[in-house]
């Protein structure tokens, strides 16, 4: 999979893209992440990528020309999605990540300042995705979350693929609580059922815990 990121701040991605499982996946060419700076496509001597909004208002907007030029400079793979990460987009969910992992190429446009010229969304972007109902300083943060969520689903990123099926949201429920050694920590014991060796009983307990966790924390998922 190829992931193109159109960003004014490519240095933002330097450490995350070389760290942990994400870094290993990129090093092993399971995924390729290419950073493109729209400032490199400006034509004025000051390399301006923003300007005042028509009609007035607070802040500056990213201009359409550098963004269009940056995206149009990229290769086009057969199955491609051009995504603008914005609070106005559809909420990012595991089901969306599982859909996006089937694409050959994702192009992520990171907004800054007060956002982008609407013509970018209307004429260039094919999908808008939100990390949640809140506002951040830049689009690089949700873009990185999206990259992480997609790449970890690619074959070869996670060693034990079975673990991907036993996580929150995979079956519409939150995860069950898990424990490791020591059995007794400051007087807090591991539940007896997990020490029983009865796998059928353990499976039932875990399913019950999933249901209870979901009822308590995210009843909207039921």
Report on this model:
The protein is of the alpha/beta class and about 220 residues long. The protein folds into 2 domains: about 1-150, SPOUT methyltransferase, trefoil knot domain (Alpha/beta knot, 3-Layer(aba) Sandwich); about 165-220, Trp Operon Repressor, Chain A. It has helices spanning about 20-25, 65-70, 95-100, 120-125, 140-150, 200-215, and strands at about 1-5, 30-35, 50, 60, 80-90, 105-110, 125-130, 185, 190. It is about 25% helix and about 20% strand. It has 6 helices and 9 strands; from the N terminus they run βαβββαβαβαβαββα. The relative contact order is 0.15. The protein is elongated and about 70 Å long. α1 links the parallel β1 (about 1-5) and β2. The strands form 3 sheets. A 5-stranded parallel beta sheet has the order 2-1-6-5-7.
Summary of the model, kept short:
It is built from 6 helices and 9 strands, in the order βαβββαβαβαβαββα.
Helix and strand string, N-terminal first? EHEEEHEHEHEHEEH
Helix content: 25-40%
CATH architecture of the largest domain: 3-Layer(aba) Sandwich
Structural class computed from helices and strand pairing: alpha/beta
List keywords for this structure.
Alpha/beta knot, 2 domains, 9 strands, 27% helix, alpha/beta, Trp Operon Repressor, Chain A, elongated, 6 helices, 222 residues, two-stranded antiparallel sheet, five-stranded parallel β-sheet
Give me the secondary-structure topology.
Layout: E1 2-6, H1 20-27, E2 32-36, E3 50-51, E4 61-62, H2 64-72, E5 80-91, H3 94-100, E6 105-110, H4 118-123, E7 127-130, H5 140-151, E8 184-185, E9 188-189, H6 199-217
Parallel strand pairs: 1-2, 1-6, 5-6, 5-7
Antiparallel strand pairs: 3-4, 8-9
């Amino acid at each position: 999979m190829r992931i193109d990121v159109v960003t004014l701040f490519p240095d933002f991605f330097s450490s995350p893209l070389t760290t942990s499982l994400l870094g290993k996946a990129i090093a092993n060419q399971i995924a390729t992440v290419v950073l493109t700076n729209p400032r490199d496509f400006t034509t004025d001597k000051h390399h301006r990528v923003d300007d005042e909004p028509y009609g007035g208002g607070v802040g500056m907007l990213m201009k359409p020309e550098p963004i269009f030029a940056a995206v149009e400079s990229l290769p086009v793979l057969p199955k491609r999605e051009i995504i603008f990460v914005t609070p106005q987009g559809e909420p990012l969910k595991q089901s969306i990540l599982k859909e996006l992992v089937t694409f050959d190429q994702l192009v992520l446009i990171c907004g800054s300042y007060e956002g982008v010229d609407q013509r970018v969304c209307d004429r260039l972007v094919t999908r808008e995705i939100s990390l949640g109902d809140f506002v951040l300083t830049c689009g690089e943060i949700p873009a990185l979350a999206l990259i992480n969520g997609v790449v970890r689903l690619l074959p070869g990123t996670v060693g034990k693929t079975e673990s991907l099926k036993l996580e929150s949201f995979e079956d519409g429920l939150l995860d069950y609580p898990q424990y490791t050694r020591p059995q007794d920590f400051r007087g807090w014991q591991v539940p007896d059922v997990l020490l029983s060796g009865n796998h059928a009983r353990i499976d039932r307990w875990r399913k019950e815990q999933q249901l209870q966790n979901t009822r308590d924390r995210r009843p909207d998922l039921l």
